[in-house]
Amino acid sequence: MTNALASQVGSWLLPALLIWPLIGAVIVRLVGRDVRPAASTASLDAMPSDALASGGPDARVLTLCVLLVEATLGVLAWFAFDGNTDGWQLATDLPWLPDLGARLALGVDGISLPMLVLTTCLMPLALLATWRQIATRVPTFGALLLALTSGLVGVFTALDLLLFYLAWELMLIPMYFIIGIWGASGRTRAALKYVILTMFGSLLMLAAIAALYVQGGASSFHLDDLLRLTLGESQQLWLFTAFFLAFAIKSALVPFHTWLPDAQFEAPVIGAVVLGLKVGTYAILRFALPLFPLAATHEVMRTVVLVLSVIAIVYGALVAMVQPDLRKVLSYSSISHLGFIMLGCFALTQTAVQGAVMIMVNHGITTSALFLLAGVLRERGGHDTLAGYGGLARIMPLFAVMLTLSMLSTVGLPGTNGFVGEFLVLIGSFGREPWLAGLATTGVIFAAVYALRAMQLVLFGSAQASAPEARTMVDLCGRELGVLSVFAVAMLWLGVAPQPVLQRMERASAALIARVDGARVTRAAVLPQLGGPSVAIGGASVSPEGAR
Amino acid sequence: MALLQTSPSHPLDGSIAEWVWLLPLLPLLGAVMNGIIAVRAGTFAATVADSDDHDHATPPAGRGLVSLIGPGVMLLAFALAVALFLAMRGAGDLAAPFIRSLGSWMPAGDLRIDWALQLDPLSMLMTLIITGVGFLIHVFSVGYMADDRGFARYFAYLNLFVAMMLVLVLGASYPVMFVGWEGVGLASYLLIGFWFRERANADAGRKAFIVNRIGDFGFLVAMFLVYAQTGALDYVQAHAGLAVAAPGVLTAIALFLFVGCTGKSAQIPLYVWLPDAMAGPTPVSALIHAATMVTAGVYLIARASAVFAGAPSVSLLVTVVGAVTALFAATIALRQWDIKKVLAYSTVSQLGYMFVGVGTGAYAAGVFHLVTHAFFKALLFLGAGAVIHAMHAAYHHAHDHTADAQDMRNMGGLGRYMPRTSALMWIATLAIAGVPPLAGFFSKDEILTSAFARAHNSPLAEASLLGVPGSAVLYGVYGLGLLTALLTAVYMTRLMLLTFTGANRTGATAASALHEAPALMGVPLAVLGVLTVVGGWLNLPSLIPIGPAHLLADWLAPVTGTATRVLAGDAHLSHTAEYALIGTAIATAGIGIAIAFARYRSPVPTKAEAPAEQGVASLLHEAYRVDAGLDRVVVRPLAWLSTSVLWRGIDRALESLFVQGSRAIARAAGAAHDWVGGGDVGRYAWAFTIGLLVMLAAFTVR
Amino acid sequence: MMLADALIVSAILFSIGVVGVLTRRNAIMLFMCVELMLNAVNLSFVTFAKLHGVSGHVFVILVMTIAAAEAAVGLAIVISVFRHFGAVDLPSLKLLRR
Fold this sequence. Notes:
The complex is a heterotrimer of chains A (about 550), B (about 700) and C (about 100).
Chain A: H1 2-9, H2 13-31, H3 59-80, E1 89-97, E2 102-108, H4 112-129, H5 138-157, H6 161-182, H7 187-215, H8 223-227, H9 233-251, H10 259-266, H11 269-275, H12 279-291, H13 293-296, H14 299-320, H15 326-347, H16 350-381, H17 392-395, H18 397-411, H19 417-430, H20 434-441, H21 443-459, H22 478-496, H23 499-504, H24 506-530
Antiparallel strand pairs in A: 1-2
Helix pairs in contact in A: 1-3, 2-3, 2-5, 3-4, 3-5, 4-5, 4-16, 4-22, 5-6, 6-7, 7-9, 7-10, 9-12, 10-11, 10-15, 11-16, 14-15, 14-20, 14-21, 15-16, 15-19, 15-21, 16-18, 16-19, 16-22, 16-24, 18-21, 18-22, 19-20, 19-22
Chain B: H1 22-40, H2 63-89, E1 98-108, E2 111-119, H3 121-144, H4 151-170, H5 174-192, H6 199-230, H7 235-242, H8 247-264, H9 273-276, H10 282-291, H11 296-303, H12 305-309, H13 312-333, H14 339-359, H15 363-397, H16 414-417, H17 419-433, H18 439-453, H19 459-462, E3 464-465, E4 468-469, H20 470-500, H21 508-511, H22 519-534, H23 551-568, H24 575-600, H25 615-621, H26 626-676, H27 681-701
Antiparallel strand pairs in B: 1-2, 3-4
Helix pairs in contact in B: 1-2, 1-4, 2-3, 2-4, 3-4, 3-10, 3-15, 3-22, 4-5, 5-6, 6-7, 6-8, 8-11, 8-13, 10-15, 11-15, 13-14, 13-20, 14-15, 14-18, 14-20, 15-17, 15-18, 15-22, 15-23, 17-20, 17-22, 18-20, 18-24, 20-24
Chain C: H1 2-23, H2 27-52, H3 55-85
């Protein structure tokens, strides 16, 4: 059945996923109608009243419809994927800039598929949950959100490096506007910081792409062609560093993380949710590791990255422990989890890589739920300061249940999705790096500390601790509850039965490890003989994209 | 590594054992149903003006239904457990465990972990205890929590706990056990902080969870080591692989597993959460902090007996930690006035005994004490619960909302008002003190005997711990154990004397409302009393020919027999020695009780009038000020580190580095541009000229 | 040879013109130096015309015409600047600068 589905949709599904949000963006901007500012935060109305001036459909409803179609396409891709085949699936190759050698080449494998489906399903849910929070210039917002979605899809499916770069930037610009226009009081500064730091990384990446292109004879930007290049070790190191810096900045790896807490604090909830998607680490798995295996297995480089990862785990958790605001706790928690992902990526075992991708998926789900809840808190109570709340478990029981479940998932309680990824990463990296993995495991202790502290300050204690306005806060309305229930089910389901996801990523992870580890074997075998550092990589005896 | 296979042709195939998956599922369903009732009935949502969690006028919402569901699923689970047990009894050869896989869990790379449950003598025994004692405590709770607004929520959490505990003991692999391990930690957190309106209760729950997590860190590392060594994580394959592992690896694994045990079972140094856990409702303390969750560590060592048998120095460490903890906690219990705190420290102390048992390789003895302790400690806690319940009612009647209903100085002479409770608790006290023929005597005696016996002619005696030879260690452990037995008799008798005998100190108005526990609470007490009396029959020593001997040890033999034999070596005690040890134990108990009678007969001031503690008494009362010490040495420096160094220091520095850095780069670029010419056209002209000359030169030179 | 001599003279004249353009402060002097450069180029064109034919002379006519036009426009600008600023001292005309 899966193959039949793939043959039906394979030729148009990915381009549709990429182009449809852009079309939708234009439609929403031109046709969508703005919304009058929301009357009161205590109102339980899910949809704007009909008394609004006529003049086209509500921009939010339009955006939601576009995103729902996108989500359906994403789910279609999930079912059309065959976990037993190697190489790119649903691959399409359209001509674009023939003189440059750039093509619109799209494809998914086991690593990008979960991220793709996660993103497409996440967007409509997040929009639905934060329905009332964007109340001005809504058509523009919708258009920007859709452009952002398109950028994300492009990043996850692009096989052509130029297209990837374009999508990367497409992700960046709308986010800048989203933070800068609809954010909280410190939004300008946060948006500016975000853009400057991320663009600096992008610049490095562009330079590296250009160098790679030139090295390949200036003929093609396609990943498969570039994977066939042989590069010297020092070349690989430089290019890898450029790529790695770009992706490390975007994923907020310590010490490049300082933009994230401010950005997520000031951004509207949807912005914060998207910022939490681990695009940078995906790009490392997709590009940095396979293209430059000698750099990835280089002792010093690898040790540096691994040490940074472990530092991130502990540092993020410790700083999260003392934050006064809920959103900042979540940001630093994000930084801590990123450490786990990086550890999994660079431990270079298949189990660890699968764990890393699992964390990426799970983190997307859990952190999004948490930011949605934080958004509810800010919307109802006006601020995120933990000390300003208390005893909310009595006042908002449904909120309390959802917050508790999500926090437990962050902590990595077995039975929730958070445990699966962390466990796989740790056990997968322990064999190669016992000391570092052991240190990383202490992260589970600190995670419990910061998560429980944040949770308890808000939920437990006497309600007298909350300000008087807070004591009349309304619990989750049906719409919010519905969306969060989807997240809750996902958290529990993926905790108990993650194997559909794990199975789909097996081949891709195995291929990745074979390619990167092949370099390590080659290096060990050949280096002593040649006595020099610049050894051509011959490890491409296993080609991960055999089906192309 | 092959996918976990279900056991090939086991005697239990096709029998009722196929329904083993129903065991954890029943309480889980109960939890879900009770949870839905709790949320729907809005038992969370009360108007903020509520100041009392107990409204005696209107019954809490959903009480009737929950009273049926909560204990009901427990009864069903217990019935199933009994049926499984009978099937196992009649099945014959149980050398291999019965394993059923419910599906794949985490397939990734070479790692294959399934949701698999394992039925063998050890897990069966634990299941019976959990469901049996658990059912009794559920019934008791119906009476105890009858007026609490959070009735439905309570049973949801309690059922969740039992479900997780069953997963823990029925899991067929370390990761599945770990699910239960952390799950009971979660349930414990929720139940300790049940009355979360008081921030102190919630904080106690949090402390329990975090200290447990420190132990969990050890468990995780042990799991990683096992996997790295053997490529498997399920008991059957992992233990087979570890049989050929180097002693150093076994030592490391055993050590980290033990770290996990100290967290869950409240041994030094991770015991600090247990006394605080008394903030929860008393039946919770009975179930979780006496009978089941805290015994998970003992269960783990018994389960991993193959590992510990191969690491004698770690086994010695286990006994030392157990013995020291036992004595340490007993001394603290001597000077506590809160009835629940006495029992809490008593639990820590008795857990120490269990660890001495499993540490010396007498796994059956340790598990035996686990079982008997479940009986009499649950009885003690539930009895204390009945007392507290009565005291609450009494103070409520006297409209006194400040007096402490749990302080023994406010009690006294309650034996007159609560004769049945008093009698049953005396039985439990004698049991824990080690008076024959009650259960506690046999189990405690067997532990001490095995410690003494293995001090000679066994691998343990030959091993050494940090340079100290094993025999010296074990003799020392025996001595500590004996001293602890003495103190146990003293503090428990003290508890009984202060509470049930002498003049009543509650105050006339309040005392008039003191009454015996209602039947709903009394019947479970009685059942536990019977079990306490006959429990010793489970594992009679062959020395005393009053009945079938070593029933428990024989039952557990397929699981722990080999390891026991390995660590026992050639250790052997002559009959004379054994009689002497038994005599010493009985004498110690008697002396302890006598001391207590001598000291605590005289009248005691009430809590309000009591003078402040001084000197050694003060030190004991404050539990050697360990909590304050930990706060000063660990918690505050960590908070300081995170706040001042990491956040305000490094994070801000990094931030300004990047922000100032980009500003500096932009400025520098601007300055460079200025330098190049700014608006100065003359400079531009120069630039043209020079550039032109350079190009010309380049062309001519080439 | 004669051609080489003429070219050398042309080069010298051109260099003097360049140096003058770069260093003179007065705008009128700058124009005179520009004219000098142009005429130096004219000289070299005429010299090469001897080798390659009449196109060199054509170029000279072209350059002279353009020089005249440019001088006219330039002087008009200088006068305008003088009227506005009261000076034609180049270093002091700093509006473009930061």
